[in-house]
Amino acid sequence: MAPSVLIVEDNLSLSQLYESYLIPTGINTDVASTGEQALAFLADNKPQLILLDIMLPDMNGMDILASLDQNDRPQVIVLTGHASKELAVQAIRLGATDFLEKPIDADRFRITINNALKLKNLTEKVSNYQQKYENGRFYDLIGSSSLMQSVYQIINNAAQSKATVFITGESGTGKELCASAVHQASPRNKSPFIALNCAAIPKDLIESEIFGHVKGAFTGATNNREGLAGQANGGTLFLDEICEMQLNLQSKLLRFIQTGTFQKVGSEKLEKVDVRFVCATNRDPLVEVNEGRFREDLFYRLHVIPIELPSLSARDGDVIEIADFLFKKLSKEEGKCYKTMSYHTKQKLLQYPWPGNVRQLENIIRNTVVLNDADIIEPQMLPPLPRADKSNLSNSSQSYDNNQMSNDFINRTSEIKSPENSASTNQSFSQPADSLVTSDEYYHVSNSQNIKPLWLIEKSYIEQAIALCDNNIPKAAASLDVSPSTIYRKMKTWQEQNTVC
């Protein structure tokens, strides 16, 4: 939309001259020849810029300048044929952007107008961002840490575009809230925001869920059904856990993204919609591409604006801001009276690594609110926090610090015989969780006939976890407090070990 300029000039020939200067720029112009006309126009309209003559027949232009709203005012360029240093200083103090002396050169006139409009646009962007980000909140996202500030800035910049946003991050970091913020900050915020969890829909129904179907397309299709793609027309379609999608459906999704057209299941008719795509995954998408589970061309089509959500433990003091917000929200829902957290409670929350991220924090706070009636939260009111150390498992593929091993893993090694005692006592031992194996001891253990290499025991343990989770690797990874990419990396390492053996 072209910007608008109000020219306040009592000389008709000069106002027409100024309008002719602006014709090549495409700027819309309106003219007022008196101060009264200018004030009447401004009461009903909001131009981006005012060209304001000082000497008007019914009032001084400075009075008009002084009457403008300080919080939501247009840019003002003051025009006068009687320039003085004192007049220029007074105009700038009253909020004028620039000061031009008559007669005005056409090129300088256009450059000054253009600069003032750019400044107005920038001011509006800053104002909009400040309105969106208040009290540590950016829409439904909470946190003042530098990492989240960077996320907010990316969302704010990306929102005005139609470019696809690809969100990555650990489970529980708020990927759907991030996608919703992209939608709310965009010009599409009046249209639907439609979310689909690709991992939650049966594989044989997901195509119908996305694109819809016609009556009789398959058993049970008793009516025509609008898919999520059609429902999201004009708005945003959020595809969560995108890496869970089947390869054959990925090709149809790629075509949909490229052309904006799709066919309902059982229909030969092409339908066209205007949809902005946002997708998310807690896996490493490049690992999925390399393993052949995710199409490379689809990845590059979706991976236009990447947003990586940080884990809660990496977000400085955000855990306190989020906890305070959740305590207030959940206390209100449960009819409880909450005022604040004690210092020791805050320290306990800050020191815990939060492997389940914000989702785990919310569950802990809900438990606390439901089981306690105090208005000040003390540490003993919090439920027991599960022991967790994600860094140990995620940063190393085969080496462990025994200080951080779980008791379950230690118990699995209790059947291993001690090299020092096996010859004389032949009794089993359990390696204490707080001891360290020296390099010499490890050499003897690894070369003992009855001892398995540590990576084989780890492999067996992880495989059992995967089996208990019905071969759902992301679910098993969550149970083990590691990222899915860690398990995939280890599986690749096991294959290499077997090849060597």
TrEMBL record:
It comes from the Bacteria. SUPFAM superfamilies: CheY-like (SSF52172), Homeodomain-like (SSF46689), P-loop containing nucleoside triphosphate hydrolases (SSF52540). One of its GO terms (biological process) is regulation of DNA-templated transcription. SMART domains: AAA, REC. Residues 391-406 have a biased composition (Polar residues). It comes from Pseudoalteromonas denitrificans DSM 6059. Residues 4-117 form the Response regulatory domain. Keywords: ATP-binding, DNA-binding, Nucleotide-binding, Phosphoprotein, Transcription, Transcription regulation. This is Two-component system, repressor protein LuxO. GO terms for molecular function: ATP binding; sequence-specific DNA binding. Residues 141-370 form the Sigma-54 factor interaction domain. The modification 4-aspartylphosphate is found at D53.
